[in-house]
Amino acid sequence: MFIDKAEIKCQAGHGGDGAVAWRREKYEPAGGPAGGDGGKGGDVIVRTDPGLHTLMDFRYSRIYKAENGQGGMNKLKYGRKGQDVVLRVPVGTLIKDKETGGVIADLKEPNAQFTVCKGGKGGKGNAKFRSSTRQAPSFAEAGTRGEARDIILELKLLADVGLVGFPNVGKSTLLSVVSAAEPKIANYHFTTLEPNLGVVQLGDERSFVLADIPGLIEGASQGIGLGDEFLKHVERTKLLIHVIDASGSEGRDPIEDFELINQELKGYNEKLATKSQLIFLNKMDLPESKANAEAFRLAYPELTVFEGSAAMNANVRDLMNKAYNELQAIETEDYETYDVVYVDNKERKDGIEVYEEHGDYHIDGPYIDKLLRSTNFGDHESLRYFQENLRKNGVIDKLKDLGVGEGDSVFIGEYEFEFFE
């Protein structure tokens, strides 16, 4: 088992701004407000896909941004919603907050999903601000910012496919050819003392985890050598590739080797005897292999047999494609459960912060940012709306509590104001 991990940045789309627009109709002041609302920003969603087995694709792209919402339009037309970004991950993926390390989602089921970042809300058009005392509002509301978050995708990988066979049949070589794993390879027994894992990448989001299980010997199921420890790893795989030295080197018989390994699997756990197997007759580049391969096929006509050479990379890709296709038909196993804790996304805080610093007074916060972007300071009604919102949200009272006086500077975003009652 090893951990497949990817750190990525997610940015949801910003909400579209509301529009300031006018109808051109008789008896309507200034034509009548007709600005439509902005569209909602797209979300960043993580969704499980049973066809995926690794997080390999996230190694190449680290930043994911959803589409912004479209601005509102004339004639009360709403802006289009921003398109979501859907990140597809294997079943069993954990989503962690990078800053705290807390698990914010444990996606254990096929097609389960979690919204990592929510898109900003669309702003209201000027038509929504019309009232009995404000017949022709010449301002609109800005859309809110989309949430942003750095997350860690983590998948504790048990190998999907295990390579089994006697020592020195070419399992490590096969793993090194089809993945980026670098197992120690040499022409003697028990080179591999613990399982090596590699990710087989077939393209088009098709990948799986392959384990080189150390070579088994006769009596492994009874604990001879380290065989019982190795068989524990075989037990956790979904599919086996049985690697056989078709050349019969070291005086071995491929048919006898095949039967002995299967006896050890069955002796350890009856379920292992029923686990799906693909047969890879390796070392077909050697002259003795052809006759042995023909004999093997005659003995086991019902088996799926591939002939090739790991060292020569012959027929290896076809074998891996077949393994991937076989995996899709095997039911997903249960995954370990993790405690999910609520991890606050700072971008979700919608409060207003009022504070004093070096004799100056500051007003900050997502709501204030939105209010500033919604205000036309050259328009009397828009400015009055801005001031009403500050008072309604208790900003003026908070400034007074901090000791603000007449003429003191108050900084709101990029703007500097003088305080007057």
From TrEMBL:
SUPFAM superfamilies per record: Obg GTP-binding protein C-terminal domain, Obg GTP-binding protein N-terminal domain, P-loop containing nucleoside triphosphate hydrolases
Name under which the protein is recorded: GTPase Obg
Annotated OBG-type G domain residues: 159-328
Family: Belongs to the TRAFAC class OBG-HflX-like GTPase superfamily. OBG GTPase family.
Subcellular locations according to the entry: Cytoplasm
PROSITE patterns registered for this protein in UniProt: G_OBG, GTP1_OBG, OBG, OCT
Species whose genome carries this gene: Peptoniphilus equinus
Needed co-factor(s): Mg(2+)
HAMAP family: GTPase_Obg
Function: An essential GTPase which binds GTP, GDP and possibly (p)ppGpp with moderate affinity, with high nucleotide exchange rates and a fairly low GTP hydrolysis rate. Plays a role in control of the cell cycle, stress response, ribosome biogenesis and in those bacteria that undergo differentiation, in morphogenesis control.
Binding-site positions, Mg(2+): 172, 192
